[in-house]
Amino acid sequence: MYDYQSRVEELDIEAFQTNLIQWFSEKHRDLPWRQDPTPYHVWVSEIMLQQTRVDTVIPYYQRFMEKFPTPDALAKADEQDVLKVWEGLGYYSRARNLQTAVQEVVEEYNGKVPDNPKELGNLKGVGPYTKGAILSIAYQQPEPAVDGNVMRVISRILRVEEDIAKQKTRKLVEGIISDIISREDPSSFNQGLMELGALVCKPKNPVCYECPLQDHCQAYKHDLQETLPIKSSKKKQKRKPYAVLIIRNEKGEILVQKRPEKGLLANLWQFPMISLEEVDFSSIIQWFRNEYGLQLELDQQVTNIKHVFSHLVWQLDVYAATVKDGTLAQDKGVFLDYSDLIQLPFPVSHQKMIPFI
DNA sequence: AACCCGGGGGT
DNA sequence: ACCCCAGGGTT
To answer: What distance lies between CA A61 and its chain's CA centroid?
Structure first.
């Protein structure tokens, strides 16, 4: 790997810091978690912002803080209520890990979010980025907080041509930030880099003529701003076909089931779904009687849904069905009426089926 | 180091 | 259709 130390030494670090922090103070967006950046506020916002856009997060953050205004409130909450507030935001393990970690803060640290890298980094769901963000933004410590924005900005400024998908490149950039971060205002410095990445130094069509760091930028100097950063592409998703059953009993209630506590969409709820790679469609009724103990009548297909995850694609054919006979086997779900069912957290793919009930 | 884990929006 | 997003956990 190329040694970027000489390029850091060529930077006018004082001017870089001043230009960046001045720009941030003038141009930053007024975001809810910036109004009172307590460690808890910063923490919750950073977890929500992982792989998620600012505009998407804003209403979730506001609802979350109304419901769980303090670490204590979140620690005591029912996990299903936390997931319900998170419903639709995705990466649900973030919510479960956050609650676990906040419970640890309440029990081990008397409710005070740790202010050192070691204890902070040991909390569930707090990785290198989130740790650095809390330390710099809430505690004004000069720690790097390297997210996708910072990777892109720094790779352009210093003409880093390594693959930014690699861990090694992130560590390289952390080292660079440690060398150039403002000791006077690490919060504005780190947030400034991220804000710059979001508003100016964008992935496509960066607005270089508005950039406060133009004079420092090697990519701009060599007209490489559209070329950098270099990122290896990920492989495409696998398709998985399923039949989903909206099953109504004689009382008009609908069968729903809780997903396993580990893996994809853990602890969320769904309508029963059957892999069409494992069960042939023509034998679903028989298969269902064996597995669930219920004799069904298949009414009609009500919709089909294509749901894209980052790593796979669900192809869902949704059918209405009616219970004709039998007793539901143990741990196979529960029949609920509509008003009870909508209290539960569903992944978006299954939320889309609720209108067809 | 490679893979798993959601959902939405931009182009 | 493809890329991107204020990443972290597991193996």
So the answer is: 13
